[in-house]
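chain below, 353 aa
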Amino acid sequence: MDWLHIWMPIANVPIAWPGLVILGLGVGMISGFFGMGGGWMMTPGLNILGFPMAFAVGTGVTQMAGSSLVSARRHAHFGNVDYKLGMIMILGAICGFEPGAQIVMWLERQGKVDRYVQDGYVVLLSLIAWLVFTDLSRKKSKEREALTSGRAAASVSGGIEWHKTLHKIKVPPMIEFHKAGVRCSLWLPVAVSFLTGLMAGILGIGGGVICMPALIYLIGCPTHVAVGTDLFQVTVSVLYGAASYSYKGRTELLAAIIMLTGAAIGGQIGAIATKYVRGYGIRVFFGVAVVGCAVSIVLKLIPVGNPAFRAFLDDTAAILILGLVGALALYIFLQFLRGVRQERAARAAVAAV
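prediction:
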């Protein structure tokens, strides 16, 4: 069905435009909800739809610049952004991004960019999924112990608390982030943001999939503040990334524009939904999304000699990534609708008194 495909003039490949629409709208919601530019799903999604990896990275970064801006503005309205922490993260991420982008260009010249970037995604997503679910398991274990000893489960701290150990490193200057409720060495967020920027340049992820867990587990931000602050830094840093990849001729602007149309709507819905789902609820669904994304990439990496079976695996990977985006977007939209109804009902009850 040729009418379902559109020719991309820069990448010189035909792409199914319904897939771009689903990615744009769905990833826009996910971006606003999880506090990430969405590149951790966007870049492999574009690659699975048919973009060469270098173009998938560049186009994904460019699309994130627009979608993150919409979501970040909404989170700022809710007071979820620590601007001091965000500015430090931005400076470190920009310093790390260009070396990462240069690594991608070198791998492309060697003819190894697709395999190395895909492998990098699988390793990164597997580590993050382990982190999220280990954190959840430890928290549940602490809650059970608290109930056994007669304490309230609500008094239990988080599962993984690496930030408490890192905060003991008192290398000056020390700095306090009031919105996040954190006091630590300035060099902690600088180091985290530089590594985030480096990985963003290599994988085309805007750094959000690394930065949001890092803000929670390494710096100690509350989840909703980590979401808003991460989106703030991602918005600025990916603008630089979009310019860098566009200059290198690896950005398909037509695809980015198609996806931005849906992302502009989805980003606002996802950001509003965080008012009604907080803390570990966000982390659990983030973990599910990471696992599904990793599985779809593994399907692309399975060595197959039979072309027909290769096509089957590619189609399965595309269906999985688009189905995952659609399912998560549907969940976020339902949470949005439920929260809005409850809020209106509460207002009506107050007005009736």
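The longest strand covers residues 5-8. The longest helix spans residues 307-352.
thats it, cya
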